[in-house]
Specification:
alpha+beta; five-stranded mixed beta sheet; six-stranded antiparallel beta sheet; single chain; disordered N terminus
Length: 152
């Protein structure tokens, strides 16, 4: 084996691994339209409760992959929405947490000025038993946000 082969083999291997990881990340959110604003919301249920959908809506456009009727404990889902213009888009998903009379609102706001999760909150009688953490990974016009609800 010559020196070029010793150097090239690990580099080729890293390139193949990197391409596979990149493709896996892109595939996880599915294919989204490119003619307007899109939102991909990854919602993690890090509780021991099955959450039940109590409502969802978009300010414009439609859900591409809407929320599930139930979200099992320690599982996740990806909710996607789009609108065919660049004027702005808000998507809201509400889940109830049984046995605690708690409602969690997951909200994504994808506007030209900024992308945010403002409006995400926990309410109800026992809202203080849970907390929700959010992160905006990418903003306008292709917003990707992550939400995790967990017990306090």
């Amino acid at each position: 084996m010559n020196t070029k082969t010793l150097i090239a083999t690990p580099l080729i291997g890293l390139a193949v691994i990197g391409a596979g990881i990149g493709a896996a990340g892109i595939a996880s959110a599915g294919t989204l339209p490119t003619n307007g604003n899109t939102i991909a919301m990854t919602i993690y249920n890090s509780t021991d409760q099955t959450m039940t959908l109590t409502g969802d809506y978009t300010s414009a456009g439609d859900f591409i992959a809407g929320p599930q009727e139930t979200l099992a404990p320690h599982s996740s889902e990806i909710v996607t929405a789009s609108v065919d213009n660049f004027g702005g888009l808000t998507a809201v998903v509400n889940y109830g947490v049984p046995d605690t009379n708690t409602i969690v609102t997951f909200q994504a706001n994808n506007n030209a000025g900024a992308a945010s999760t403002d409006g995400t909150q926990i309410g109800g009688t026992h809202h203080n038993r849970y907390d929700v953490m959010t992160n905006v990974d990418t903003g306008f016009p292709t917003m990707n946000a992550v939400y995790t609800i967990f017990p306090v």
